[in-house]
Design brief:
The chain is an all-alpha fold. Helices cover 84% and strands 0% of the residues. Helix 4 packs antiparallel against helix 5, helix 4 runs parallel beside helix 6 and helix 5 packs parallel to helix 7.
């Protein structure tokens, strides 16, 4: 079993990537209950893969990149299901895009994948909000509560974006001093 441990976290991330087109297709055909089930399973694998990689000491740069890609694609897939039914999700999409651009820019400047705790928390807020958004399609009476949750998530995204910008600004200033 030990030989296979190093592959399990990346397999879980890969399964999230494979699930994205299925989620979009199910959403297109308005099969929202399977969308919710798959989205919850994918969100749980996001938690599990990182935890296993750290526990088994099999973390890698490619694993971190694969995990981040899987997170972004999963969020994008769920957002594509939602933005045509609940337009406020367009703001969540735009902020995720901005955060991704900042992270990508930093990666190309430093060749490092840096993840802040606020970024991890934001990812969970986004996943929960997106899954609840699909619930909102199924149960229209839930939309008022859902709107509040979406705006809280948007606030969390702004805080994350600012935190990454401040972090990388401070990091670049320290490098200039050296």
């Amino acid at each position: 079993m030990n030989n296979y441990k190093k592959y399990i976290p990346n397999i879980l991330s890969s399964l999230r990537i494979i699930a994205v087109p299925i989620l979009i297709l199910l959403g297109y055909f308005e099969l929202y209950v399977p969308v919710i089930i798959i989205a919850i399973c994918c969100s749980l694998t996001d938690f599990i893969d990182g935890r296993l990689a750290r526990k088994w000491q099999v973390t890698s740069d490619i694993g971190a990149k694969l995990d981040a890609l899987a997170d972004k694609l999963l969020a994008l897939g769920l957002l594509l299901v939602l933005i045509f039914r609940i337009p406020v999700y367009l703001y969540v999409l735009l902020l995720e895009f901005l955060i991704s651009l900042v992270n990508l820019y930093n990666y190309f400047k430093t060749h490092k994948t840096n993840v802040l705790l606020i970024g991890k928390l934001k990812t969970w807020f986004v996943f929960i909000t997106l899954i609840l958004g699909v619930f909102g399609i199924i149960f229209p009476g839930f939309k008022g509560v859902l709107e509040v949750i979406v705006y809280i998530t948007i606030g969390m995204q702004f805080i994350t974006l600012i935190s990454y910008l401040v972090y990388w600004h401070k990091t670049s200033q320290k490098k200039k001093q050296i």
